[in-house]
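The protein record filed below.
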Amino acid sequence: MPNLRDTQKTPAQRAEESLRKKFHKTLFSRFAGAILQYELLAPGDRVAVCISGGKDSMLMAKLFQELRRHHKFPFELVFLVMDPGYSAENRALIEENAAKLEIPVTVFATQIFENVFEIPNSPCYLCARMRRGCLYSKAQELGCNKIALGHHYDDVVETILMGMLYGGQIQTMMPKLHSTNFAGMQLIRPMYLIREEDIEAWRDYNRLRFLRCACRFTEQCATEELFSKRSEVKQLIRSLSERDPQIRQNIFKSVENVNLATVIAYKDKLGERHHFLNEYDGEDPCKKESVI
Protein backbone atom coordinates (compact mmCIF):
# COMPACT_ATOMS: atom_id res chain seq x y z
CA MET A 1 0.00 0.00 0.00
CA PRO A 2 1.11 3.65 -0.43
CA ASN A 3 3.61 4.88 2.16
CA LEU A 4 3.30 7.97 4.37
CA ARG A 5 4.83 10.34 1.82
CA ASP A 6 2.31 9.22 -0.76
CA THR A 7 -0.56 10.52 1.39
CA GLN A 8 0.71 14.08 0.81
CA LYS A 9 0.19 13.73 -2.94
CA THR A 10 -3.07 14.01 -4.82
CA PRO A 11 -4.75 10.81 -6.01
CA ALA A 12 -3.82 11.72 -9.58
CA GLN A 13 -0.16 12.22 -8.65
CA ARG A 14 -0.04 8.90 -6.82
CA ALA A 15 -1.70 7.08 -9.69
CA GLU A 16 0.66 8.61 -12.24
CA GLU A 17 3.77 7.95 -10.18
CA SER A 18 2.75 4.32 -9.69
CA LEU A 19 2.55 3.93 -13.48
CA ARG A 20 6.10 5.26 -13.82
CA LYS A 21 7.54 3.13 -11.03
CA LYS A 22 5.76 0.19 -9.44
CA PHE A 23 3.56 -0.70 -12.45
CA HIS A 24 5.78 0.49 -15.27
CA LYS A 25 6.62 -3.01 -16.52
CA THR A 26 3.20 -4.61 -16.11
CA LEU A 27 1.05 -1.70 -17.26
CA PHE A 28 2.78 1.15 -19.08
CA SER A 29 5.31 -0.97 -20.97
CA ARG A 30 2.61 -3.37 -22.16
CA PHE A 31 0.35 -0.46 -23.13
CA ALA A 32 3.11 1.17 -25.17
CA GLY A 33 4.12 -2.23 -26.50
CA ALA A 34 0.65 -2.95 -27.88
CA ILE A 35 0.49 0.46 -29.53
CA LEU A 36 3.84 -0.19 -31.20
CA GLN A 37 3.27 -3.85 -32.09
CA TYR A 38 -0.19 -3.35 -33.60
CA GLU A 39 0.44 0.18 -34.97
CA LEU A 40 -2.47 1.69 -33.08
CA LEU A 41 -1.34 5.34 -33.19
CA ALA A 42 -0.03 7.59 -35.96
CA PRO A 43 1.09 11.24 -36.04
CA GLY A 44 -1.88 13.59 -36.05
CA ASP A 45 -4.39 11.10 -34.64
CA ARG A 46 -7.21 12.47 -32.52
CA VAL A 47 -8.36 9.65 -30.27
CA ALA A 48 -11.62 9.44 -28.34
CA VAL A 49 -10.67 7.55 -25.17
CA CYS A 50 -13.99 5.93 -24.24
CA ILE A 51 -14.58 5.81 -20.49
CA SER A 52 -17.33 3.62 -19.05
CA GLY A 53 -16.40 4.27 -15.42
CA GLY A 54 -14.85 0.88 -14.74
CA LYS A 55 -11.27 0.11 -13.75
CA ASP A 56 -10.14 -0.76 -17.28
CA SER A 57 -11.20 2.42 -19.05
CA MET A 58 -10.10 4.69 -16.20
CA LEU A 59 -6.65 3.14 -16.23
CA MET A 60 -6.56 3.43 -20.03
CA ALA A 61 -7.18 7.16 -19.72
CA LYS A 62 -4.25 7.57 -17.31
CA LEU A 63 -1.99 5.47 -19.54
CA PHE A 64 -2.84 7.65 -22.53
CA GLN A 65 -2.03 10.76 -20.52
CA GLU A 66 1.30 9.26 -19.51
CA LEU A 67 2.05 8.19 -23.08
CA ARG A 68 1.38 11.68 -24.41
CA ARG A 69 3.99 13.08 -22.02
CA HIS A 70 6.70 10.87 -23.50
CA HIS A 71 5.66 10.05 -27.06
CA LYS A 72 7.82 11.15 -29.96
CA PHE A 73 5.04 12.36 -32.25
CA PRO A 74 1.96 14.55 -31.65
CA PHE A 75 -1.54 13.16 -31.15
CA GLU A 76 -4.66 14.49 -29.43
CA LEU A 77 -6.94 12.94 -26.84
CA VAL A 78 -10.61 13.43 -26.07
CA PHE A 79 -11.79 11.64 -22.93
CA LEU A 80 -15.32 10.66 -23.82
CA VAL A 81 -17.99 9.47 -21.37
CA MET A 82 -21.30 8.38 -22.81
CA ASP A 83 -24.17 8.37 -20.32
CA PRO A 84 -26.64 5.81 -21.69
CA GLY A 85 -28.98 6.41 -18.76
CA TYR A 86 -26.88 5.81 -15.65
CA SER A 87 -28.37 6.20 -12.20
CA ALA A 88 -27.48 9.48 -10.55
CA GLU A 89 -25.14 7.63 -8.18
CA ASN A 90 -23.26 5.87 -10.96
CA ARG A 91 -22.83 9.01 -13.05
CA ALA A 92 -21.65 10.93 -9.98
CA LEU A 93 -19.03 8.27 -9.22
CA ILE A 94 -17.69 8.44 -12.79
CA GLU A 95 -17.41 12.23 -12.63
CA GLU A 96 -15.86 12.14 -9.15
CA ASN A 97 -13.22 9.62 -10.24
CA ALA A 98 -12.45 11.62 -13.37
CA ALA A 99 -11.95 14.77 -11.29
CA LYS A 100 -9.88 12.89 -8.69
CA LEU A 101 -7.60 11.45 -11.38
CA GLU A 102 -7.49 14.73 -13.33
CA ILE A 103 -9.06 13.29 -16.46
CA PRO A 104 -10.89 16.10 -18.33
CA VAL A 105 -13.93 14.18 -19.52
CA THR A 106 -16.52 15.20 -22.09
CA VAL A 107 -19.88 13.72 -21.07
CA PHE A 108 -22.84 13.30 -23.40
CA ALA A 109 -26.20 11.70 -22.71
CA THR A 110 -28.24 9.15 -24.68
CA GLN A 111 -31.42 7.19 -24.02
CA ILE A 112 -30.00 3.74 -24.76
CA PHE A 113 -31.04 2.11 -21.49
CA GLU A 114 -34.62 3.34 -21.98
CA ASN A 115 -34.67 1.89 -25.48
CA VAL A 116 -33.43 -1.59 -24.56
CA PHE A 117 -34.80 -2.04 -21.04
CA GLU A 118 -38.01 -3.80 -22.12
CA ILE A 119 -36.37 -6.01 -24.77
CA PRO A 120 -36.70 -9.64 -23.59
CA ASN A 121 -34.00 -11.30 -25.70
CA SER A 122 -30.31 -10.27 -25.66
CA PRO A 123 -30.74 -6.66 -24.44
CA CYS A 124 -27.02 -6.55 -23.57
CA TYR A 125 -26.02 -7.38 -27.15
CA LEU A 126 -28.27 -4.67 -28.57
CA CYS A 127 -27.15 -2.21 -25.90
CA ALA A 128 -23.48 -2.83 -26.75
CA ARG A 129 -24.11 -2.23 -30.47
CA MET A 130 -26.03 0.97 -29.80
CA ARG A 131 -23.38 2.23 -27.40
CA ARG A 132 -20.64 1.56 -29.94
CA GLY A 133 -22.58 3.44 -32.61
CA CYS A 134 -23.17 6.43 -30.35
CA LEU A 135 -19.48 6.55 -29.40
CA TYR A 136 -18.42 6.50 -33.05
CA SER A 137 -20.92 9.22 -33.93
CA LYS A 138 -19.93 11.56 -31.09
CA ALA A 139 -16.20 10.95 -31.62
CA GLN A 140 -16.53 11.77 -35.31
CA GLU A 141 -18.52 14.89 -34.43
CA LEU A 142 -15.62 15.98 -32.17
CA GLY A 143 -13.11 15.52 -34.98
CA CYS A 144 -11.66 12.20 -33.83
CA ASN A 145 -10.51 9.52 -36.25
CA LYS A 146 -10.19 6.73 -33.66
CA ILE A 147 -12.02 5.45 -30.60
CA ALA A 148 -10.12 3.53 -27.92
CA LEU A 149 -11.80 0.83 -25.81
CA GLY A 150 -10.42 -0.72 -22.62
CA HIS A 151 -10.52 -4.44 -23.44
CA HIS A 152 -7.54 -6.24 -21.94
CA TYR A 153 -5.56 -9.46 -22.44
CA ASP A 154 -7.91 -11.61 -20.39
CA ASP A 155 -10.90 -10.33 -22.37
CA VAL A 156 -9.15 -11.47 -25.54
CA VAL A 157 -8.33 -14.92 -24.14
CA GLU A 158 -11.88 -15.42 -22.86
CA THR A 159 -13.36 -14.32 -26.19
CA ILE A 160 -11.26 -16.86 -28.11
CA LEU A 161 -12.37 -19.72 -25.87
CA MET A 162 -16.01 -18.58 -25.79
CA GLY A 163 -16.10 -18.57 -29.58
CA MET A 164 -14.90 -22.17 -29.66
CA LEU A 165 -17.06 -23.51 -26.83
CA TYR A 166 -20.30 -21.62 -27.45
CA GLY A 167 -20.01 -20.27 -31.00
CA GLY A 168 -18.42 -23.19 -32.81
CA GLN A 169 -15.84 -20.92 -34.40
CA ILE A 170 -12.27 -19.71 -34.06
CA GLN A 171 -12.04 -15.95 -33.88
CA THR A 172 -10.53 -13.28 -31.68
CA MET A 173 -11.10 -9.75 -30.44
CA MET A 174 -8.90 -7.75 -32.83
CA PRO A 175 -6.51 -5.04 -31.57
CA LYS A 176 -7.86 -2.61 -34.18
CA LEU A 177 -10.71 -2.48 -36.67
CA HIS A 178 -11.91 -0.18 -39.45
CA SER A 179 -15.47 1.01 -38.88
CA THR A 180 -17.90 -0.25 -41.49
CA ASN A 181 -20.49 2.48 -40.80
CA PHE A 182 -18.35 5.54 -40.05
CA ALA A 183 -15.98 6.39 -42.88
CA GLY A 184 -12.40 7.04 -41.82
CA MET A 185 -12.95 5.88 -38.24
CA GLN A 186 -11.07 3.08 -36.49
CA LEU A 187 -11.47 1.23 -33.19
CA ILE A 188 -8.30 0.49 -31.23
CA ARG A 189 -7.66 -1.59 -28.10
CA PRO A 190 -4.37 -0.40 -26.54
CA MET A 191 -4.87 -2.49 -23.34
CA TYR A 192 -4.59 -5.62 -25.48
CA LEU A 193 -1.47 -7.00 -23.73
CA ILE A 194 -2.34 -5.98 -20.15
CA ARG A 195 -3.45 -8.62 -17.64
CA GLU A 196 -6.60 -8.00 -15.61
CA GLU A 197 -4.87 -8.95 -12.36
CA ASP A 198 -2.36 -6.13 -12.92
CA ILE A 199 -5.18 -3.63 -13.47
CA GLU A 200 -6.73 -4.75 -10.19
CA ALA A 201 -3.38 -4.44 -8.43
CA TRP A 202 -3.00 -0.83 -9.66
CA ARG A 203 -6.55 0.00 -8.55
CA ASP A 204 -6.06 -1.47 -5.09
CA TYR A 205 -2.60 0.02 -4.60
CA ASN A 206 -4.03 3.48 -5.25
CA ARG A 207 -7.13 2.83 -3.13
CA LEU A 208 -9.50 3.62 -5.98
CA ARG A 209 -13.12 2.51 -6.29
CA PHE A 210 -14.64 2.22 -9.75
CA LEU A 211 -17.95 1.05 -11.13
CA ARG A 212 -18.25 -2.69 -11.66
CA CYS A 213 -21.43 -2.73 -13.74
CA ALA A 214 -22.57 0.79 -14.58
CA CYS A 215 -25.92 0.14 -16.18
CA ARG A 216 -29.67 -0.08 -15.55
CA PHE A 217 -29.27 -3.82 -15.09
CA THR A 218 -26.66 -3.54 -12.34
CA GLU A 219 -28.79 -5.32 -9.77
CA GLN A 220 -29.31 -8.24 -12.16
CA CYS A 221 -25.66 -8.32 -13.21
CA ALA A 222 -24.54 -8.73 -9.62
CA THR A 223 -26.22 -12.15 -9.43
CA GLU A 224 -26.67 -13.31 -13.03
CA GLU A 225 -23.03 -12.65 -13.95
CA LEU A 226 -22.05 -15.56 -11.74
CA PHE A 227 -23.82 -17.85 -14.19
CA SER A 228 -22.95 -16.10 -17.46
CA LYS A 229 -20.97 -17.82 -20.17
CA ARG A 230 -18.08 -15.39 -19.78
CA SER A 231 -17.90 -16.08 -16.06
CA GLU A 232 -17.92 -19.82 -16.72
CA VAL A 233 -15.06 -19.45 -19.19
CA LYS A 234 -13.17 -17.16 -16.81
CA GLN A 235 -13.43 -19.78 -14.08
CA LEU A 236 -12.41 -22.55 -16.48
CA ILE A 237 -9.29 -20.65 -17.53
CA ARG A 238 -8.48 -19.91 -13.90
CA SER A 239 -8.74 -23.60 -12.99
CA LEU A 240 -6.61 -24.72 -15.93
CA SER A 241 -4.02 -22.04 -15.15
CA GLU A 242 -3.56 -23.45 -11.66
CA ARG A 243 -2.22 -26.61 -13.31
CA ASP A 244 -0.38 -24.88 -16.16
CA PRO A 245 0.48 -21.15 -15.92
CA GLN A 246 0.99 -21.04 -19.71
CA ILE A 247 -2.68 -21.72 -20.48
CA ARG A 248 -3.67 -18.07 -21.07
CA GLN A 249 -0.63 -17.42 -23.21
CA ASN A 250 -1.24 -20.57 -25.24
CA ILE A 251 -4.86 -19.62 -25.93
CA PHE A 252 -3.77 -16.10 -26.94
CA LYS A 253 -1.01 -17.43 -29.19
CA SER A 254 -3.32 -19.98 -30.84
CA VAL A 255 -4.87 -17.31 -33.07
CA GLU A 256 -1.43 -16.03 -34.08
CA ASN A 257 -0.24 -19.48 -35.14
CA VAL A 258 -3.05 -20.69 -37.40
CA ASN A 259 -1.87 -23.10 -40.10
CA LEU A 260 -4.50 -23.01 -42.85
CA ALA A 261 -3.19 -26.28 -44.27
CA THR A 262 -4.37 -28.07 -41.12
CA VAL A 263 -7.93 -26.71 -40.80
CA ILE A 264 -11.04 -28.21 -42.41
CA ALA A 265 -12.42 -24.88 -43.62
CA TYR A 266 -12.03 -21.15 -43.12
CA LYS A 267 -13.49 -17.86 -44.33
CA ASP A 268 -11.37 -15.10 -45.85
CA LYS A 269 -11.92 -11.41 -45.05
CA LEU A 270 -14.51 -11.16 -47.83
CA GLY A 271 -16.55 -13.94 -46.22
CA GLU A 272 -15.76 -16.50 -48.89
CA ARG A 273 -15.55 -20.04 -47.50
CA HIS A 274 -12.58 -22.25 -48.36
CA HIS A 275 -12.73 -26.01 -47.74
CA PHE A 276 -9.70 -28.27 -47.71
CA LEU A 277 -11.32 -30.63 -50.23
CA ASN A 278 -11.38 -27.86 -52.83
CA GLU A 279 -7.63 -28.13 -53.25
CA TYR A 280 -6.97 -31.58 -51.84
CA ASP A 281 -6.61 -33.48 -55.12
CA GLY A 282 -4.35 -30.80 -56.57
CA GLU A 283 -1.69 -31.18 -53.89
CA ASP A 284 1.78 -32.49 -54.63
CA PRO A 285 1.66 -36.20 -53.62
CA CYS A 286 5.14 -35.89 -52.16
CA LYS A 287 3.82 -33.41 -49.61
CA LYS A 288 1.09 -35.73 -48.37
CA GLU A 289 1.54 -37.46 -45.07
CA SER A 290 2.69 -41.04 -45.49
CA VAL A 291 0.55 -43.69 -43.83
CA ILE A 292 2.24 -46.74 -42.37
In short: The first strand starts at residue 46 and ends at 50. The first helix runs from residue 11 to 20. The chain has one domain: 5-254. Residues 221-227 have pLDDT under 50 and may be disordered.
